[in-house]
């Protein structure tokens, strides 16, 4: 469809993008403010970044947050992948559907419900609230998304691929490692990635189940935001935005690399044929 | 494969039992205890007896409804026109990117933008309305909530539109439908599943956005989420908090049935 | 039988309430090309899956070279399969797909290389080693699937409708190639198809199946010429099937006329069905005719005219004729005694064979 640049549909889209990005750039803009408010820009300065890097408590929180995200998404990916394999193996339709429904409960539940019910659960178990309760919660709410990312890949997989591998002499373990894993790897990676962002993004659940001074970034930002404006938070958001861009860039790079590997192989082929 | 199946399932089934079923059972169980730890129905009596809780529930649902409606109105055209652009996957990525910025940072940005001397009031002065109290109003809560939810609405609608077979649109034109008729009779009905998924993804979280009510709504708005947080973390009345939680769960189940996604998910294709 | 390689005895398979296979018995000899022929859903794939070891039989024994293999897992059987949808691994290229089985067996790299190159040469895909599966055509994928199976040097190769996804021209070419490949390798092929032309063209021996049973087994010519019952006659080729009555040995009554035929060994006055192939019917003038029919339609098929007609009793007659006639015209049809194939109702394959033998001996004595 041909469209002129000044089409009102394009203007609408630009407006939506403007609205989506304005607050983020607003934040970043004021992170360079020499003053201390988010309303009057009194000159350029790195001072809030300097403050941020000198703030050992903040750096510790950032590291904790990343540690929780990495650990929880790794563990959730493993359990979720095994879960997807188990669900894939279920023959009875009703059982499969019930388990899928159970799987999705944490996906659709509001954060407060997850937070509150986990809080009751941990207290019931007598678990000290802190790092371990936060880690367990993050693993718990990330598992279903991994399952949901891996299961469609499994279902997409032609069942005769498994038969074919067995037919060619593969043992069960070999079927798993040589046929199923390579096939579902994209699903596993997406699942891991989603779990990682879920964990980084979570506020409400962590807010409920944390304790003993253990904090993640979101909880800390909430605490600071309730006290008012602190441009150190702006500096932090600028860095986090950069981090997101890097993540996306990395993701794209991997995709690109995979594609070009294929392309290169094809080129080699071509060269051979010419000879 | 059979032998290995049990091995796969152990951690996953443990998770299902410990982190899905047990917490659900416990929150229902907890809702039958009052603040002094006595088994009682008083929480439910209070909830349904006093107007306060019912009014709060109604308000919460009303806000969620408005937020969902606003989000949908903005998102559908965006998704539709986005799907017609040339580098649509790139644009879509740009829509998703803001969701990777922590929700609290975005809320925090609006504290600045909506403040007395913030950008919004500068704009109002510029067009001659004069500065207004924006922060800590119901309107600001709705705006910020909608802002945060928009990408989650666009995504499923975009996918539904993108999956639409273009020859259906051509067929409709071919059969004499106008653009509007094509839209209302072919495109919209066929993308309804995406809309439902979007509504589901927005409505339920909107019932529980307690941090926004605190940071942006300034206690003008109290949602189910706010009430639960209040009871669990401030007044320590876990029984009442759980009761509200149970109500929220019931509301959630009703929404799920109303938007009717369940049937389709069941029939997994091999 | 010489060199029996596979033996099914009393095999059946049930899925819940449905009997996918009822009492299957057969023996396969080493080095022959067998075809399982039957309509969709008759149990052909089920037999292959039981043979390959993907599915267990509900009852009965499966023997391979004289040893029972019911409990031998698929990965231990010297049997390989070419799947209907090829089942090529999408994450591996052509070379790695073909090498898959050898790699699992920890074969030396050099040996793998030689064997893969040779297998690809056999299926005429030399030079395609580095291609991705998504980069080759359906016909080529099919060859890769065959190469992947034969590179393991199986004793038996199972092929489940391997040609059904190909277009008509490629299909005919592949039929010839597959047959040649089988002869070159000298191993047993079990080929599944629902296309009777394909079965007739390729096989040493055909098993005609219906509803979980083997109805008739034999060389293509025998099955074509002596179908055991209505179903086989109909399935194996276009046929005219009418009711008749055996008056005596070699005498059958059809439509009130008495004809000489080549069948015997039945009760006097036994009701039977009679098959006459359309290509055995010759158009003639009414006065020389054995039967008189009226032409309803006539379609030119390139090599023959396909003529639909009916007799006075309302039976339809399909005639393949090199000569042309006119719609609406009364024509005579002529056929030889040996063109009449008499079928008894409900005769089993064993009884059928026994009867055939008894009167063929008779006939030999007479000569
Ligand atoms: N896994 C299964 N579960 C239930 N019924 C099956 C299954 N596989 C095959 N069947 C049934 O068994 C019968 C034979 O199937 P199949 O061997 O695939 O037939 P064919 O290959 O001749 O088309 C069919 O009626 C089919 O519906
Ligand atoms: Mg089949």
TrEMBL record, chain A:
<feature type="domain" description="ABC transmembrane type-1">
    <location>
        <begin position="62"/>
        <end position="252"/>
    </location>
</feature>
<feature type="transmembrane region" description="Helical">
    <location>
        <begin position="131"/>
        <end position="151"/>
    </location>
</feature>
<feature type="transmembrane region" description="Helical">
    <location>
        <begin position="235"/>
        <end position="254"/>
    </location>
</feature>
<protein>
    <submittedName>
        <fullName>ABC transporter permease</fullName>
    </submittedName>
</protein>
<keyword id="KW-1003">Cell membrane</keyword>
<feature type="transmembrane region" description="Helical">
    <location>
        <begin position="12"/>
        <end position="32"/>
    </location>
</feature>
<feature type="transmembrane region" description="Helical">
    <location>
        <begin position="102"/>
        <end position="125"/>
    </location>
</feature>
<dbReference type="InterPro" id="IPR051789">
    <property type="entry name" value="Bact_Polyamine_Transport"/>
</dbReference>
<dbReference type="InterPro" id="IPR000515">
    <property type="entry name" value="MetI-like"/>
</dbReference>
<dbReference type="InterPro" id="IPR035906">
    <property type="entry name" value="MetI-like_sf"/>
</dbReference>
<keyword id="KW-1133">Transmembrane helix</keyword>
<comment type="similarity">
    <text>Belongs to the binding-protein-dependent transport system permease family. CysTW subfamily.</text>
</comment>
<feature type="transmembrane region" description="Helical">
    <location>
        <begin position="179"/>
        <end position="200"/>
    </location>
</feature>
<keyword id="KW-0472">Membrane</keyword>
<dbReference type="Pfam" id="PF00528">
    <property type="entry name" value="BPD_transp_1"/>
</dbReference>
<keyword id="KW-0812">Transmembrane</keyword>
<keyword id="KW-0813">Transport</keyword>
<feature type="transmembrane region" description="Helical">
    <location>
        <begin position="66"/>
        <end position="90"/>
    </location>
</feature>
TrEMBL record, chain B:
<keyword id="KW-0472">Membrane</keyword>
<keyword id="KW-0813">Transport</keyword>
<keyword id="KW-0812">Transmembrane</keyword>
<keyword id="KW-1133">Transmembrane helix</keyword>
<dbReference type="InterPro" id="IPR035906">
    <property type="entry name" value="MetI-like_sf"/>
</dbReference>
<dbReference type="Pfam" id="PF00528">
    <property type="entry name" value="BPD_transp_1"/>
</dbReference>
<keyword id="KW-1003">Cell membrane</keyword>
<feature type="domain" description="ABC transmembrane type-1">
    <location>
        <begin position="57"/>
        <end position="259"/>
    </location>
</feature>
<feature type="transmembrane region" description="Helical">
    <location>
        <begin position="90"/>
        <end position="114"/>
    </location>
</feature>
<feature type="transmembrane region" description="Helical">
    <location>
        <begin position="134"/>
        <end position="158"/>
    </location>
</feature>
<dbReference type="InterPro" id="IPR000515">
    <property type="entry name" value="MetI-like"/>
</dbReference>
<protein>
    <submittedName>
        <fullName>ABC transporter permease</fullName>
    </submittedName>
</protein>
<feature type="transmembrane region" description="Helical">
    <location>
        <begin position="237"/>
        <end position="260"/>
    </location>
</feature>
<comment type="similarity">
    <text>Belongs to the binding-protein-dependent transport system permease family. CysTW subfamily.</text>
</comment>
<feature type="transmembrane region" description="Helical">
    <location>
        <begin position="12"/>
        <end position="32"/>
    </location>
</feature>
<feature type="transmembrane region" description="Helical">
    <location>
        <begin position="61"/>
        <end position="83"/>
    </location>
</feature>
């Amino acid at each position: 469809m041909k469209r002129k640049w000044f089409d009102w549909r394009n203007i609408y889209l630009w407006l939506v993008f403007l609205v989506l990005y304005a607050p983020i750039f607003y934040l970043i803009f004021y992170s360079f403010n020499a003053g201390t408010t988010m309303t009057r820009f009194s000159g350029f300065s790195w001072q809030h970044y300097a403050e941020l890097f000198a703030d050992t408590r903040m750096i510790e929180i950032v590291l904790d947050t990343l540690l929780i995200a990495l650990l929880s998404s790794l563990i959730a990916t493993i359990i979720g992948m095994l879960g997807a394999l188990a669900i894939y193996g279920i023959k009875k339709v009703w059982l499969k559907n019930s388990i899928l429904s159970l799987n999705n409960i944490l996906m659709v539940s509001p954060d407060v419900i997850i937070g509150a019910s986990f809080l009751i659960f941990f207290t019931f178990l007598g678990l000290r609230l802190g790092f371990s309760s936060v880690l367990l919660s993050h693993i718990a709410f990330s598992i279903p998304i991994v399952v949901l990312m891996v299961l469609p890949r499994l279902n997409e997989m032609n069942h005769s691929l498994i038969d074919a591998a067995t037919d060619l002499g593969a043992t069960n373990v070999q079927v798993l490692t040589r046929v199923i894993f390579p096939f579902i790897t994209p699903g596993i990676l997406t699942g891991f990635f989603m779990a990682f962002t879920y964990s980084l993004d979570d506020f409400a659940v962590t807010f409920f189940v944390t304790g003993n001074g253990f904090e993640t970034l979101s909880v800390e930002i909430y605490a600071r935001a309730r006290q008012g404006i602190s441009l150190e938070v702006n500096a932090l958001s600028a860095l986090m935005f950069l981090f997101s861009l890097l993540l996306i860039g990395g993701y794209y790079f991997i995709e690109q690399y995979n594609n070009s590997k294929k392309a290169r192989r094809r080129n080699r082929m071509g060269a051979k044929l010419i000879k | 494969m059979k032998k290995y199946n049990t091995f796969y399932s152990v951690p996953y089934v443990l998770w299902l039992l410990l982190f899905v079923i047990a917490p659900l059972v416990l929150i229902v169980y907890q809702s039958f205890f009052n603040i002094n730890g006595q088994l009682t129905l008083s929480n439910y009596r209070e909830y349904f007896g006093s107007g306060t809780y019912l009014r709060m529930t109604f308000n919460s649902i009303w806000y969620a409804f408005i937020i969902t409606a606003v989000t949908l109105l903005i998102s559908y055209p965006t998704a539709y026109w986005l799907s017609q652009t040339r580098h649509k996957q790139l644009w879509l990525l740009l829509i998703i990117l803001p969701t990777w910025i922590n929700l609290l940072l975005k809320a925090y940005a609006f504290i600045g933008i909506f403040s007395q001397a913030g950008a919004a009031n500068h704009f109002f002065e510029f067009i001659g309305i004069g500065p207004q109290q924006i922060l800590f109003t119901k309107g600001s809560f709705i705006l910020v909530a909608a802002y945060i939810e928009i990408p989650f609405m666009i995504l499923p609608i975009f996918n539904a539109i993108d999956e639409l077979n273009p020859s259906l649109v051509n067929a409709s034109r071919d059969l004499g439908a106008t653009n509007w008729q094509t839209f209302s009779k072919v495109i919209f009905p066929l993308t309804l599943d995406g809309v439902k998924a979007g509504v589901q993804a927005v409505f339920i979280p909107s019932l529980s956005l307690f941090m926004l009510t605190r940071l942006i709504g300034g206690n003008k708005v109290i949602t189910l989420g706010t009430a639960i947080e209040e009871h669990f973390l401030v007044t320590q009345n876990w029984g009442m908090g759980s009761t509200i939680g149970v109500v929220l769960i019931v509301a959630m189940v009703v929404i799920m049935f109303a938007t009717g996604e369940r049937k389709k998910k069941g029939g997994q294709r091999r | 039988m010489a060199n029996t390689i596979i033996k099914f005895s009393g095999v059946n398979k049930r899925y819940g309430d449905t009997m996918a296979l009822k009492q299957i018995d057969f023996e396969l000899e080493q080095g022959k090309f067998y075809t399982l022929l039957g309509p969709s859903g008759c149990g052909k794939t089920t037999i292959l899956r039981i043979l390959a070891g993907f599915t267990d039989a509900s009852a009965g024994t499966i023997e391979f070279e004289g040893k029972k293999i019911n409990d031998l897992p698929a990965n231990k059987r010297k049997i390989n399969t070419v799947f209907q949808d090829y089942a090529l691994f999408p994450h591996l290229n052509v070379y790695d797909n073909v090498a898959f089985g050898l790699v699992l067996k920890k074969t030396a790299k050099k040996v793998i290389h030689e064997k893969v190159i040779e297998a690809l040469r056999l299926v005429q895909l030399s030079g395609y080693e580095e291609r991705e599966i998504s980069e080759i055509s359906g016909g080529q994928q099919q060859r890769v699937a065959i190469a992947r199976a034969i590179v393991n040097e199986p004793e038996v190769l199972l092929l489940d409708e391997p040609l059904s996804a190909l277009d008509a021209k490629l299909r005919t070419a592949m039929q010839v190639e597959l047959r040649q490949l089988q002869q070159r390798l000298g191993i047993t092929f079990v080929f599944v198809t629902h296309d009777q032309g394909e079965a007739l063209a390729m096989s040493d021996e055909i098993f005609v199946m219906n509803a979980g049973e083997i109805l008739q087994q034999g060389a293509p010519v025998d099955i074509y010429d002596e179908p055991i019952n209505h179903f086989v006659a109909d399935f194996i080729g276009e046929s005219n099937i009418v009711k008749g009555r055996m008056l005596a040995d070699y005498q059958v009554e059809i439509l009130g006329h008495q004809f000489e035929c080549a069948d015997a060994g039945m009760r006097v006055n036994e009701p039977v069905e009679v098959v006459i192939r359309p290509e055995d019917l010759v158009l003639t003038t009414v006065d020389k005719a054995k039967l008189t029919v009226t032409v309803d339609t006539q379609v030119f098929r390139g090599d023959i005219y396909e003529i639909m007609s009916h007799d006075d009793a309302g039976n339809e007659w399909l005639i393949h004729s090199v000569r042309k006639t006119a719609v609406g015209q009364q024509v005579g049809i002529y056929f030889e005694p040996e063109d009449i194939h008499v079928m008894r109702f409900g005769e089993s394959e064993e009884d059928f064979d026994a009867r055939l033998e008894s009167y063929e001996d008779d006939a030999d004595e007479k000569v």
